[in-house]
Design a protein that fits this description.
3 domains; 2 iron, 2 sulfur cluster binding; 374 residues; alpha/beta; globular; Elongation Factor Tu (Ef-tu), domain 3; Rossmann fold; iron; flavoprotein
Length: 374
Amino acid sequence: MEQQIYKGKLVQFHWLKVAKKEELTKNTFSLEFEIPENLKEYFKFEAGQFVSVKFMAHGLEVIHDYSMTSAPYEGKICLGIKINSSEGDTSQLFHNYNVGDKLLVSEPAGRFTLVSKPSEFRTIVAFAAGIGITPILSHFKNILHNEPRTRLFLFFGNKSSEELIYRDQLDNLARMCGDRLQIFYFFSQEKTADQFFYGRLDEKKLHLIINQILHLDDTDEESTIWDAVDEVLICGKGEMIKTLANACYHHGIPKKNIHFELFEEYNDDIYPVEKEFPLIENIEVEFTILGKNYTTILPDNKDKVLQQLLSQKFPVPYSCKSGICGSCECSLVEGEVELLENEYLTEKEEAQGHILACMSIAKSKKINLNFDLS
C-alpha cells in the first residue's frame, strides 16, 4: 500500500518494516527499516537527506522528518531520533512501535547534500549539536568511503557526555581513518579537563578553533587548515546555525560553501538582510495551492511574502521560514520579487522562475504564485 501526502509538495510514502530498534541514550533511539527489493529504487538517497515517517500518536496521525545516519553505500535506511518530551509524538513512536511493525515512510528528500569529488584533495569541516549529528554522520561515512583524498574535522557539541549519541560509531571511524578524520567533543553543562572543550559552539568558540586547532597545515606550510576549508556543514538548532554560519562567513568562507540543516522551526533569517527596497504598498497577490486559487492584498513589502500570507491565516506550506527546508517553494507566474537568501533552490530551478516564499520580498504591485509544483 502506498499513500501520497501533501507536505508543501506531494510526497510519496511506502509501508516499510522496522528491522532494528535501539535505545541510544535516555532520550534518543535509532530505527532501521527493511527495504524490500521492489522498493529499493524508491529509497536511493544522498548523504545528508531525510525521510518523513507517518505514525499514530495520541490517537492522531502525525508526520515527522528524521535524518538518516546511514550512508548510501550501506544500502539501508537508519534514522536517529530524539524524544523531546515524554508526552511528545516521538515518545509514542518509541514506545508503540517495535521490530516487525510497519510504518509509512516517505521517499528520501532534502538538499543538505554535497557533490562527491573523489579525485580532489578537499578539507571539510562540520559543526553539530545533539541530534544534529545524524546527517553529519551520514556525510562523513560517505565521504570517507568515496573520497580517499578528503580530510574531515568534526566539532560536536552536547550538554554532557551522557547525552552524546553515536560516540562509538564516531570513535570507530576516527580509529579507522585517523589520518583523515579528527573529532572534537564539546560539553556545555559538564566540566572538562581542558577548558577549551567546555561551552557551546558559537562565534567565540569558532575563533578559538580556527586559531588553536585549524591553524598549522602540514600539507602547506604557508597557510592554515582553515584557509584550505572547501565546505562547511552545520546541523542543529536555529540559533546555533545562525551564529556559526555568520562566523564562518566573516572568517572568509563563501556563503555558497556553508551548508546547514535545521532541526526545528526557525523564524529568523540566517544571514542579516543587507539590501534596502523601495516601499510598495497595497500589493495584490494571487496564488494557487492544491488547485484552489486565492487573492489577497499585502499592506506593503516590509516583510517577506510567506510571513504576510501566514499572518492572514492562509494555508501556505512552510516549515523553517529561513530558506532552508524548501517547503514554501513555488513558481513566480507574474510580477517581481527579490530572493534574499537561498540554501535550497538549484540554479536551474531559479532560472525556471522558482522562488522560496519565505525569503521573497515583493518588488511589484502585483505578484502571482503557484505552489502546485508537482
